[in-house]
Amino acid sequence: MATTASRQLVLPFLLEHKESLDDFFAFTEAQKQLITLIKQASLLSKPLCIVGGTGSGKTQILRCLCYEYMPSIYLNGSTIGQYNPSILTSLGNTRVCIDNAQYFIGNQIWEQAIFSYLTQSPELPPLTLALPDRHAINEIKLADLRSRVHTFMLAKLHPLSCDQQKQAILKTAKDNGLALNKHLVSWMQKRYPRDNHFFFKVFRSLFKYCMEYQQKASLSSLKVVLNKIDDLPN
């Protein structure tokens, strides 16, 4: 059996921490069914297009897929300048998950590279894309690629409500062995845009800080963590 080290590509877009689709915060029966469909699509090697607005969980699902179905790589279109399209031509039996794929759309070289990856071999693992909405597919310039993506299984996600986001953070805290007061989450929600990526980054840093210094999660410790973050949203 291959070891994790041998299965994981040593590339500049490795993920921060391990995640599983079983950890996805599905609060409704429809959301649970959608996660089940995504799992089935991945097991059956079907290409997938995940659509949804900010905070809907697209990134979390892509990262889960990367960890659960190795070998794999995660590309984020918002940092397109870090990658060279040629990486898609030498991946072999590797799953490719592209987040914020709208940034690749309209780029002739990238569109051709993605299409070439899709047509290299029917034995290759499926491609998974994440887009803000299904209409972005129609913006793809390369007709062959646009036609191919229209055949992908489509999974539509919806952003977490304020209460759902709070529940998700409290559950994560509990799973990490930390007693977190819901009022701390409410304090954050009143002062910052409810961006899931930012919120979970802050609270994961808080969990780490409290465990390192053997402290309870409090407003003062939360403020210490926030003061260490350079890119605070307005």
Model description:
The model is unreliable at 1-15 (pLDDT under 50). The chain has a 5-stranded parallel sheet, with helices on one face. The chain has 234 residues and is α/β, with parallel strands linked by helices. Helix content is 43%, strand content 10%. Helix 4 links the parallel strand 3 (95-99) and strand 4.
Number of E strands: 5
Strand residue percentage: 5-15%
First-to-last CA distance = 48 Å
Main sheet: strand order: 2-3-4-1-5
Largest sheet features: 5 strands, parallel
Low-confidence stretches: 1-15
Structural class: alpha/beta
Name the helicity range.
40-55%
Task: Report the C-alpha radius of gyration, rounded.
Answer: 19 Å
- Mean of the pLDDT scores? 83
**Tally the helices: what do you get?**
9
Order of helices and strands: HHEHEEHEHEHHHH
3D shape: elongated
The gist of it:
With 234 residues, the chain is α/β, with parallel strands linked by helices. It has helices at residues 4-7, 29-43, 58-68, 108-119, 143-149, 162-175, 182-191, 196-213, 219-227, and strands spanning 48-51, 72-76, 95-99, 127-131, 153-156.
